[in-house]
Write a structure and sequence with these properties.
Strand order of the largest sheet: 2-4-5-7-6
CATH topology of the largest domain: Heat Shock Protein 90
Number of domains: 2
Largest sheet: 5 strands, mixed
Number of helices: 8
CATH class of the largest domain: Alpha Beta
Structural class: alpha+beta
CATH superfamily of the largest domain: Histidine kinase-like ATPase, C-terminal domain
Order of helices and strands: HHHEHHEEHEEHHEE
Length: 274
């Protein structure tokens, strides 16, 4: 097959257009090596274009995420800096109040940074989950350790009347459960009771957490697991969801309402016997 000089020059010009960011359609339905080459170049150009689009989207998402992180960190840090400036000249009773608020701000900032680091590890795919057989009661005990002071301050109790063995990564799943229980505490009144149930059905094993608040408005349901859109720092529920999905599990939500608290259910899709 003879390839004319004009065909080569046209193909070269089209390739330069692709390099410059344009997307000429090089495909044709003719036979021969030149047509095969044109079609292969067209496929390559489309793939490069898709990759570039994805990179631009990732860049925009990263920019938005960094802006959200900056905002979330700036709020407590700014408040603490103001209180530090006022601390030296403040009366004694105010000093105690400022110190307590600074401690609370440091705790919030530390939790946020740790959660963001864990989320980054999950999203990068670098987490190696190590499933073990563990009881739901043991998971709940692990999850409640960092929440003890919070629950004591609000005089809240946690009830868990049943138990079941579950296959999961104990540390990561306890972290997810901590975030779910923390959310339940934040949406329950002082002196309230948080209910934790566990069980299984033909589809999965589960642990559910029900608060005693007013439930979740339906318009908020879709944004519950989006970062920085929920209550608090807006990272706890998305992190819990990422942990569960990283183990091929999931989290479902029943909104409650009319005096019935919301229920978050951690689902474990595992056919191995517990």
């Amino acid at each position: 097959m003879i390839i004319s000089r004009s065909e080569v020059e046209q193909l070269s010009a089209d390739i330069r257009k692709i390099v410059d960011g344009h997307a000429p359609d090089l495909r044709d339905n003719l036979e021969g090596r030149l047509s095969i080459l044109k079609n292969d170049i067209h496929i390559l150009a489309r793939r490069l274009g898709n990759q570039n689009t994805n990179l631009q989207q990732d860049k925009a998402a990263l920019t938005d995420t960094l802006a959200d992180i900056s905002h979330q960190l700036k709020t407590p840090l700014t408040a603490m800096m103001v209180m530090v400036d006022l601390l030296e000249d403040a009366p004694e009773h105010k000093q105690a109040e400022f110190i307590a608020n600074i401690k609370q701000g440091l705790t919030q900032t530390n939790w946020l940074v740790n959660s963001l680091l864990k989320m980054a590890k999950l999203e990068s795919g670098t987490v190696a989950f190590n499933p073990v057989q563990i009881s739901a009661q043991k998971l709940a005990d692990l999850a409640l350790v960092p929440l003890k002071i919070m629950l004591d301050i609000k005089n809240q109790t946690v009830q868990m009347p049943d138990d079941i063995n579950i296959s999961c990564d104990a540390n990561w799943t306890a972290q997810a459960l901590t975030n779910i229980i923390k959310n339940a505490s934040e949406h329950s009144p002082e002196g309230g009771t948080i209910q934790i149930f566990s069980g299984e059905n033909p589809i999965c094993k589960f642990i559910s957490v029900t608060d005693c608040g007013e439930g979740i408005p339906l318009q908020r349901m879709k944004s519950l697991f989006r970062r920085f859109e929920g209550s608090g720092a807006g990272i706890g529920l998305p992190l819990a969801k990422a942990i569960m999905r990283g183990q091929c599990g999931d989290i479902d939500v029943a909104s409650g309402g009319a005096g019935s608290g919301a229920t978050f259910t951690l689902k474990f899709f595992d056919d191995r016997p517990g």
